[in-house]
Design brief:
The protein is α+β, with helices and mostly antiparallel strands. The chain folds into two domains: 2-79; 83-181, Nucleotide Exchange Factor Grpe, Chain A, domain 2 (Roll). It is built from five helices and six strands. The protein has helices at 2-9, 13-33, 37-80, 83-107, 109-124; strands at 127-130, 142-148, 158-163, 165-168, 171-174, 176-181. Strand 4 and strand 5 (171-174) form a beta hairpin. Helix 4 (83-107) packs antiparallel against helix 5 (109-124). The protein is elongated. 7% of the residues are buried. The mean pLDDT is 83. This is Protein GrpE. It holds the Pfam family GrpE. One of its GO terms (molecular function) is protein homodimerization activity. Belongs to the GrpE family. It is found in: Cytoplasm.
Amino acid sequence: MAEKRESSEHQDPRDDAQAHTSVEAQEAEAHSELPDEAEIERHPLEEEVGLLKDALLRTRAEMDNLHKRAEREVEKSRKFAVEGLLKDLVPVIDTLDQGIEAAGESGAEGLVLTRKLLLDTLVRYGLEIVDPLGEAFDPQWHEAMSMLPSEEHASDQVIQVLQRGYRLHDRVVRPARVIVAQ
């Protein structure tokens, strides 16, 4: 044991310098790994700025979508604003048609002109007349009142129109009531 003490007492001074240098290097490395206080404060702020920018972009996109949706709704409202009125006027047109048929040629002239004026006005507002005689039956636009066997017509072809239909910008106001070939 005495030999051990002697050897430790007579260590080479270069070994001490190397040990001291390696300790300093470790301390310097430890300090470089630890961020300074400014970096510690800046990191959460940068993160918060990033989150706020993301939230702003999302809010802008949401506002743009809301604006576009509102424009579509306004356009749709304008387009179909007269739909209720047209539904109410369709029976008036039917009554005029029946009056024209009942009056014959002599008394129907006034009714024909009134009917034409009314229809022209409604067409300006987007009303379309659906008169599908000879067309293929389409349940979207037609209402089949009955089916008749027919050798002259193709199956599912409209062979008689009982009551004309009406639509407004591709929306049914009243389906055409028809008889369809079997």
